[in-house]
Amino acid sequence: MKSNRIRVGVKGEYEGKVNPYMGVGLEEELSGKIKGKAEGKAIEEVKLEGATMIGEVGVKMDISERLKLEVKGECFAGKREGLLGMVKVKCNIIKL
């Protein structure tokens, strides 16, 4: 897969012990191609050019001094469509 994209957007976040945030963006695929083979035969080439709107909402939390949590969801509409969810946990066991 080869891909050349530009993404612009804005994101707002409230800062505190609990940090909710929201963002919106636009991504333009300038040139993108996917090629491949299956069982030795070429798969038809797919072109990816086009625009995609992206919305995200999430929250970051400091559970303790050493434990942080982030939960995030993204929605894609346009050339790429779908939903993405993420849960991220950071734990600093050793304090330097």
Give the percentage of residues in beta strands.
Answer: over 45%
Count of individual beta strands:
6
The residue-averaged pLDDT reads 88
**C-alpha geometry:** elongated
Q: Could you name the ranges where pLDDT drops below 50 across 5 or more consecutive residues?
A: none
Radius of gyration: 19 Å
Largest sheet: 6 strands, antiparallel
Structure class:
mainly beta
Annotation field: number of helices: 0
Q: Helix share of residues?
A: under 10%
Total tally of structural domains? 1
Can you write the helix and strand succession as a string?
EEEEEE
How far apart the termini lie comes to: 42 Å
Description:
With 96 residues, the chain is mostly beta strands. Helices cover 0% and strands 78% of the residues. The chain contains no helices and six strands. It has strands spanning 2-13, 18-38, 41-47, 50-62, 67-78, 82-91. Strands 1, 2, 3, 4, 5 and 6 form a six-stranded antiparallel beta sheet that branches. A hairpin with a 4-residue loop joins β1 and β2.
List the helices and strands and how they pair.
Elements: E1 2-13, E2 18-38, E3 41-47, E4 50-62, E5 67-78, E6 82-91
Antiparallel strand pairs: 1-2, 2-3, 2-4, 4-5, 5-6
Task: Pick out its properties.
96 residues, mainly beta, 0% helix
Task: Report a brief summary of the structure.
With 96 residues, the protein is mainly β.
